[in-house]
Write a structure and sequence with these properties.
Layout lengths: L5 H4 L6 E3 L2 E3 L5 E6 L4 E7 L3 H16 L1 H4 L3 H17 L1 H12 L3 H21 L15 E9 L2 E5 L5 H14 L3 E5 L6 H13 L6 E3 L4 H10 L5 E5 L2 H13 L4 E4 L5 E4 L5 H13 L11 E5 L3 H14 L18 H16 L3 E4 L16 E4 L6 H4 L6 E7 L2 H9 L3 E2 L1 E5 L3 H10 L4 E4 L14 E2 L2 E2 L4 H7 L1 E9 L15
Parallel strand pairs: 6-7, 6-9, 7-8, 9-10, 11-12, 11-17, 12-15, 14-15, 17-18
Antiparallel strand pairs: 1-2, 3-4, 5-21, 10-20, 13-14, 16-19
The protein binds nicotinamide-adenine-dinucleotide.
């Protein structure tokens, strides 16, 4: 029976996980909060520098351990299949741990945990299908080919909003390729990742392949990024943190993948199916309380349907059921952090003073105790130069803007520092495809929104980061290419002239 349940961890210190063993950290501990009540529910370790060193050493040793290094690709795949089964069998428990930590609704966390299992299976199947290439280099009697090998130790730094799903975007392809991981969960959501560590062991991965050091970004996260024993960083989080990490990694000449924030445009054209479009806009901003990197927070509506769409958005917003995240009928739970509540309130006040028109929400709902709730909020008459339209809010706040024609719509949609996701609702396929070609965003959703797949590459442009998770692109990120050249001519060559092709 696992101790990694909400009941088992209440009031407890969470351990760290190094070289296949859970233990109490020697570092200080800080409170982990339940956003639904605003109360402390567990204690999280701020791992020490020595513990980070140990975790990295364990991962490096695992990379040299024949039980991992020489494991066949198919057998690596089998381990991932086993882990997928274990995750699937533990969806309820893992989802409840995530909800306890980040306050996102249980129904969503169940779906995302199920998606972790699907993702593990996808990369399990890929483990023995990763190939090099043979290259005709215009040199007779020479064989030139490539092999793909693991990068080494991956430092995975994870945010709080969907810890398991976001970690798995790195973990599944990295393990399929034979890497080892040192994971730092968000200081606000560590419990589910520790529960996963237990399943990784049960699946049969050798000790040291997967390590978890909890703690704060500025201490533990930074130590991982700078550690000479870590070969690559996989970071998902805010753009300002991404900048710090990119600069530290760049200084160490260490590659980093950055999945950062967004201010994604969500377009409603006058020829759209308005029922579906309004539903999509509501889902794009209020699902997960707007705490998703792809939140469609800037909604551009054609001027001819602007008033009607505002009316429909207001009506739909009034219907959103706010409540405890573990209640089956709740649609909007609390925000994950009290600081987020304050930040979101600051944006709401700022938008009012900048002249945006508040048409729904704007306050905090009553009757929900001390939970960190904010009403779903809609502002009309937003301009693209307002703070509300420029900065990532990461809360349930939608800004609605007007456009006259497609050129203006594309210009405004692209007028942002970010480039993560985008969406358009139209029944004109030509218009949709023209939008797709011109929009500066890593993901384009047409007549749908927030519809990712593990099989399809995801990642941002501009200040939303670089690198691709999911799909075949991900195994490229977690592997490196080695080029091999064999001369089978049996002859000596001119010692003083490079053997370039003629
Ligand atoms: P955050 O940047 O505050 O923290 C993310 C992680 O980085 C945490 O584990 C934190 O401890 C760590 N960290 C902080 N400072 C660090 C440092 N100096 N060195 C190393 N690590 C450090 O982000 P958050 O508040 O946890 O998450 C919300 C942000 O994540 C939003 O901006 C959101 O858009 C973004 N996000 C992006 C994606 C994506 O796929 N693009 C997905 C989810 C979330």
């Amino acid at each position: 029976m696992t101790r990694f349940t909400v009941g088992g961890l209440v009031g407890q210190r969470l351990p760290i996980f190094i070289n296949g063993t859970f233990r109490d950290s020697a570092g200080t501990h800080f409170a982990g909060f339940d956003p639904a009540t605003g109360e402390e529910w567990c204690q999280v370790a701020d791992s020490t520098a020595a513990e980070v060193d140990e975790a990295v050493a364990a991962a490096r040793a695992a990379m040299q351990n024949p039980a991992w290094r020489d494991l066949s690709q198919s057998d690596r795949g089998l381990l991932l299949y086993r882990l997928a089964d274990l995750v699937a069998a533990n969806v309820e428990n893992l989802a409840r741990l995530e909800t306890k930590d980040n306050g996102k609704i249980l129904r969503e966390m169940r779906a995302l945990t199920q998606a972790v299992s699907v993702g593990l299976r996808y990369f399990a199947g890929m483990a023995d299908k990763i190939e090099g290439t043979t290259i005709p280099v215009n040199k007779p009697d020479m064989l030139n080919f490539t092999v793909r090998e693991p990068v080494g130790v991956i430092g995975a730094i994870v945010p709080w909003n969907s810890p398991l799903l976001l970690l798995n975007r790195c973990m599944a392809p990295a393990l399929a390729m034979g890497n080892a991981l040192v994971v730092k969960p968000s200081e606000h959501a560590s419990a589910a990742i520790l529960a996963l560590a237990e399943l990784v062991t049960e699946a049969g991965f050798p000790a040291g392949v997967f390590n978890v050091v909890t703690g704060r970004g500025a201490s533990v996260g930074d130590a991982i990024v700078r550690h000479p024993g870590v070969n690559k960083i996989d970071f998902t989080g805010g753009t300002s943190t991404g900048r710090l990490i990119a600069s530290a990694a760049g200084n160490a000449l260490k590659p980093a993948m950055l999945e950062l924030g967004g201010k994604s445009p969500h377009i409603v054209c006058e020829d759209a199916d308005l029922d579906r479009a309004v539903n999509g806009v509501i889902s794009g901003i209020f699902a997960a309380g707007g705490q998703t990197c792809v939140a469609g927070s800037r909604c551009f509506v054609h001027e001819s349907i602007y008033d009607e769409v505002i009316d429909r958005l207001v009506a739909r917003t009034a219907e959103v059921r706010i409540g405890a995240p573990d209640a089956e009928d709740t649609q909007l739970g609390p925000l994950a952090l009290w600081s987020q509540v304050e930040k979101v309130q600051g944006f709401i006040e700022g938008a009012r003073s900048e002249g945006a028109r508040l048409v729904a929400g704007g306050g905090r709902p009553g009757g929900l105790g001390n939970g960190w709730y904010v009403e779903p909020t809609v502002f009309a008459d937003v301009r693209n130069d307002m703070r509300l339209a420029r900065e990532e809010i990461f809360g349930p706040v939608l800004g609605v803007l007007k456009f006259r024609d497609d050129d203006e719509m594309i210009r405004l949609a692209n007028d942002t520092a970010y480039g993560l996701a985008s969406g358009i609702w139209t029944n004109d396929i030509n218009r949709a495809l023209r939008f797709m070609r011109r929009i500066e965003a890593g993901m384009v959703w047409i007549n749908t929104y927030r519809s990712p797949s593990v099989m399809s590459p995801s990642g941002g442009f501009k200040e939303s980061g670089y690198g691709k998770h999911n799909g075949f692109a991900a195994v490229e990120e977690f592997s490196r290419i080695k080029t091999v050249v064999i001369d089978y001519s049996g002859k000596s060559q001119d010692a003083f002239v490079m053997r370039v092709a003629k």
